[in-house]
Amino acid sequence: MAERSVEWRGRALIGERPNAAVLFLRMVRRRRIIGMGAVILLVILAAAAAAPWLSPYDPLALNVPERLQSPRRAHLFGTDDFGRDIFSRVVFGARLSLLVGTLVTVLATAVGVLVGLVAGSSPRADRILMRIMDGLMAFPDIVLAIALMATLGPSVRNVIIALGFVYTPRVARVVRASVLVIVNQDYVEAARALGASRARILARYILANSISPVIVQATFIAAYAMLGEAALSFLGVGIPPHVPTWGGIIAAGQVYLRQAAWISVFPGAAIILSVLALNLVGDGLRDFLDPRLRYSS
Amino acid sequence: MLSYLTGRLLALIPVLLVVAVVVFLLVRSTPGDPARVLAGEDATPEQVRMLRRDMGLEGSLPTQFAVWMTRAVRGDLGRSLFNRFPVRRIIGQHAGPTLMLSAMAVTVALCIGIPLGVVSAVYRNSWWDQAGLALAMLGAAVPTFWLGLSLIVVFAVNLGWLPSSGFRPLTEGVGRSLTYLLLPSLTLGVPNSALIIRFVRSSLLDVIATDYVRTARAKGLGERLVIFRHVLRNALVPILTVVGLTFAALMGGAVVTETVFAIPGMGQLVVSSVLRRDYPVIQGVTLVVATSYVLINLIVDLLYFLVDPRVKY
């Protein structure tokens, strides 16, 4: 193992950098759970992308004579109280869950990285920005998200804004902690001595070297965001009820738990599978990217 | 210790100020004039003006904040727009069920988390360890509302062992009250035990590697005695943090569970006030929940001092 590490470092020294696919395969080989999580995520992504072709029915089409049908060949996951096909609704719901998960992660990461970089590299900004972040983290996630939704009103865009706002401090804290370590490294000092501008040092040296924990945090935020969106929709303060979302389908099914539990079972399983896959990838990445674990394993 | 305590209390001021500003701005950022919206279309300008004054919406934004903050510090959180009761009284009525639910959920989480965490660490990399970690991962992925509904289907609908929803105060009998709280506590406790399993495991593994444990083994002490007397006692100190954080998070995070099980707690109050657009209640509850979170964290830090003689401030 040690020989291989030396070999890799040697290759890195002569400027040979593996491409992303090679790096990913190497990660999967060393941390099998990343591969497992990635495969589950790919299947869900493919199902979401192929939703119009995969769904046997229109997810919004009412078909009252077929209401509350148990799972069978015509309706794989059964039907709800309006006769809507649960399988089609779950597949279309995947689109929204993944969209919210992705965009919340992008928003929280973009703002969080900016805040963390500024806070980590300027002690004066640090005092103000991190107190604000501490204040925001004092709210339980779901309470702050619900309160924001009360102000913004229910819509897909507002759910993304509210959850993005809620998760920004987590990224900011991770980036700041990383920046505080990197900013005192010799290579940053060397870049400064060579006359590199402040922006170049931030982007080329500090950001580039603090990206690993951000990537790991991003996978967890995507998982939190999917759970958060489902909870908001379940409570009726998130995405409007006519739009098929996993949380919304479960909420609609809770009235029929006794006679039609399948309405809530399948979207629930979809949430668990997606969040589990994201957590597996996140855990695997954390282990792989942590040099202490990488070289000891 | 005194200087540490003073420092910590002073550090709370900016955090609580941010909390107050966020809560204050929540209502102020509502599109349009909240007083006009709340007064209804038939309200006269005089009624709207009265409501504006009542809600502290007159004057500039800093003036409004100062008025609201002064009232809040005195404990005056306004009146509910829905039933005109003082917000403080409403919160007082809803705090009891949430406190009971949180305490029971933490107990459930500890009862699952500590034994599984210990087994995972002691039999590291064994089948038990893998099962504990798998349970921890699954626990972190299950949405609480889905778990709650599944428990209702199994234990209330199919088996009929426990009530499906509702709340009974302790005054109606401890046994009866606990029966109603059991399913909600499991719903909240099981996912939270995931964090405790992982924390106990890593904390134990750290202690197992220390010199005094090696010495204890070298003295010829039995493995069980080493684990319980030397490892567990020392490893459980950091776990206090995770218990404190879990309890603090449950105070507000019980929102979904309280809704599923129709428990009249703070969480359900948040949701119902949002659905009714009862802004003074939304502000009051979020302020109280966030402040409790900050204070519980402080108490946990101070408990460290009492529990672990090695901790010096």
What does this structure look like?
The complex is a heterodimer of chains A (297) and B (313). Chain A is mostly helical and 297 residues long. Chain A contains 14 helices and no strands. Chain A has helices at 2-13, 20-30, 32-49, 51-54, 86-121, 123-137, 141-152, 156-182, 186-193, 198-209, 211-235, 246-253, 262-289, 291-296. In chain A, helix 3 (32-49) packs across helix 5. The relative contact order of chain A is 0.14. Mean pLDDT of chain A is 83; it is low at 293-297. Chain B has a domain at 97-277 and 293-307: Orthogonal Bundle (MetI-like fold). The N and C termini of chain B lie close together (5 Å). Chain B is globular, with a radius of gyration of 24 Å. Chain B contains 13 helices and no strands. Chain B is 77% helix and 0% strand. Chain B is mainly α. The interface between A and B is large, with 44 and 50 residues.
Order of helices and strands of chain B: HHHHHHHHHHHHH
CATH superfamily of the domain at 97-277 and 293-307 in chain B: MetI-like
Mean pLDDT of chain B equals 83
Largest interface: A-B, 44 and 50 residues
Layout of helices and strands:
The complex is a heterodimer of chains A (297) and B (313).
Chain A: H1 2-13, H2 20-30, H3 32-49, H4 51-54, H5 86-121, H6 123-137, H7 141-152, H8 156-182, H9 186-193, H10 198-209, H11 211-235, H12 246-253, H13 262-289, H14 291-296
Helix pairs in contact in A: 2-3, 3-5, 3-13, 5-6, 5-8, 5-11, 5-13, 6-8, 7-8, 8-10, 8-11, 9-10, 11-12, 11-13, 12-13
Chain B: H1 2-28, H2 34-39, H3 45-54, H4 61-73, H5 87-122, H6 127-141, H7 144-158, H8 174-208, H9 211-218, H10 223-253, H11 255-260, H12 266-275, H13 279-307
Overview features:
heterodimer; A: 297 residues; mainly alpha; 14 helices; 0% strand; B: 313 residues; MetI-like fold
Short description:
The complex is a heterodimer of chains A (297) and B (313). Chain A has 297 residues and is mostly helical.
